[in-house]
């Protein structure tokens, strides 16, 4: 996934990075890599921090307008901070790069992920990559359907959290003995 995401960022990097005097030409790929790692790392951190539903909705195309999406804002903040640290840019310079680049990258990433005729990204593979394989066995596309239809709030408390996922996968996990299985996967997705 990282290689495909890197290529997607690079395709979009024209005026934001490639033709930007604030980034020396010999460091263009490094800047593209930094934005790529900011996106992937931000998504991993969101999953580890319990934002499973937010990541799923964003990547599944159900996150609404990117300008008003809190997870997209987090990814943007990560990228700005990382570019400032890595390249010695001020906040305005880094913010300009990110605001010119990230919305188009995210929109294309989401579009490619949800296009059945484009196999460069798929939701199951992205989650597998982001979780180090611990989402294997979960039907991510099925979970997306439940999230967008409000069907993941299994305990009726108004949110989707670890307890809801545990309730949802209990049937599959109860068939395994000695713990582990889907219960551990669900806990791993929520960083617990």
Question: What report would you give on this structure?
Answer:
The protein has helices at 2-12, 14-18, 28-48, 52-59, 70-87, 91-113, 123-130, 140-148, 162-173, 182-189. With 192 residues, the protein is mainly alpha-helical. Helices cover 64% and strands 0% of the residues. The protein folds into two domains: 2-130, no CATH class; 140-189, no CATH class. Residues 171-183 have low confidence and may be disordered. Helix 1 packs across helix 6, helix 5 packs across helix 6 (91-113) and helix 9 (162-173) packs antiparallel against helix 10 (182-189). The chain contains ten helices and no strands.
Radius of gyration: 18 Å
- Mean pLDDT, rounded to whole units? 82
Largest sheet: none
Number of helices: 10
Whole-number total of structural domains: 2
Question: Which class do the helix and strand fractions yield?
Answer: mainly alpha
Distance between the termini: 24 Å
State the shape. elongated
Q: How do the SSEs run, as a string of H and E?
A: HHHHHHHHHH
């Amino acid at each position: 996934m990282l290689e495909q995401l890197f290529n997607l960022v690079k395709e979009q990097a024209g005026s934001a990075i490639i033709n930007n005097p604030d980034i020396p030409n010999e460091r263009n790929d490094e800047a593209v890599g930094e934005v790529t790692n900011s996106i992937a790392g931000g998504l991993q951190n969101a999953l580890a921090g319990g934002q499973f539903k937010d990541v799923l909705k964003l990547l599944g195309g159900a996150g609404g307008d990117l300008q008003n999406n809190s997870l997209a804002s987090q990814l943007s903040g990560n990228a700005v901070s990382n570019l400032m640290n890595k390249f010695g840019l001020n906040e305005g310079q880094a913010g300009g790069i990110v605001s010119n680049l990230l919305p188009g990258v995210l929109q294309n990433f989401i579009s490619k992920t949800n296009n059945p005729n484009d196999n460069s990204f798929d939701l199951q593979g992205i989650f597998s990559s982001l979780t180090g394989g611990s989402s294997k066995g979960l039907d991510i596309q099925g979970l997306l359907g439940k999230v967008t239809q409000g069907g993941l709030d299994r305990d009726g408390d108004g949110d989707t959290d670890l307890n809801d996922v545990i309730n949802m996968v209990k049937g599959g996990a109860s068939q395994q003995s000695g713990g582990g299985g889907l219960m551990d996967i669900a806990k791993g997705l929520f960083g617990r």
